[in-house]
Amino acid sequence: MDLNTVLEVRDARSRVPWRPGDAWLGGGTYLFSEPQPHLRRLVGLSRTGWEPVRELPDGSLELAATCTIARLSRFGRSWRAPAAPLVEQCCRAFLASFKIWNMATVGGNLCNALPAAPMISLTAALDGTCLLRAQDGSLRRVKVADFVLGAGRKDLGEGELLRSVTLPARALASRTAFRQASLYGLGRSGVLVIGALDPADGSLAVTVSAATVRPFRLWFPLPPDRDALRGAVDSAVGADGWFDDIHGLPAWRRHMTLRFAEEIRRELTSGGAAG
After folding, report:
1. How does DSSP classify residue 272?
2. For the FAD-binding PCMH-type domain, which residue ranges apply (predicted)?
């Protein structure tokens, strides 16, 4: 898509005051996919030099906003953390060609805040925290599960930049389970559920996404029984939290979410509590 209203593309390394009509440019796979008549200038992030994936001294993992899906996938295949399989599973949940994989970024996937975005699913399930930088240089941190507010809505101020997402060491040590469903063989995710069992204290986190307008991460200090899990999902999502579009009706999304959540509970807890 030619963005014929864009008059200038500048390098993000040169600090120029933000103005109406500006937009951050990462991989550009969304920006150039449809008309953007409100844009006048793009601020490119490709030369920032941020390390795509960085293992921190405390055992946590930092994903730069500019890390591409292809780069993350390569890292995940060689990574030895217990939660490593989840990286490739979420990368493969993309409805995207290899060309998109090599350009689309983790940050762009989060900032679009689409329900089916698999990087939202991955980072929310592993209790990720977004690092946000305002135009005045101030920083703030927001959990991924709180960063995405709804379909296409996120907690991001005017000119604010998503710099990175950090996944804590404790979450990376978890044993995980993954379920995903689409209406079509190669269709967009209609339901995506991830479980993470903490080996340190036996707590269970179940993250629901794609079926819902935003991600919901449900944490249980001890694995719940079937009825408690179903009740927690329904209570958290509510009647209005199920997404409704051509990729799945809310009733189907809820049914599959509850089915997958129970499968995950059983897989990670060998049947879990009686029920």
Report:
1. -
2. 1-172
For the chain, the helix, strand and coil percentages under 3-state DSSP, each to the nearest 5: 30, 25, 45
Which amino acid is residue 228, in one-letter code? A
Rounded (10°) angle between helices 118-125 and 84-91: 160
57 Cβ partners below 8 Å, 6+ apart? none
Per DSSP, 215 falls in state -
Distance separating alpha carbons of residues 177 and 135, to the nearest angstrom: 39
Compute and round to an integer the Cα radius of gyration of the chain: 19
Strand order in the sheet with 22-25: 8-11, 41-44, 22-25
- Model confidence band, residue 128 (pLDDT cutoffs 50, 70, 90): very high
- Residues 6 or more apart whose CB falls under 8 angstroms from that of 156 comprise 111, 132, 147, 162
**What are the structure tokens assigned to 79, written together?**
């990574």
pLDDT in tens, 236-264: 999 999 999 999 999 999 999 999 999 99
Under 8 Å between Cβ of 48 and 12: yes
Span 33-47, pLDDT tens digits:
999 999 999 999 999
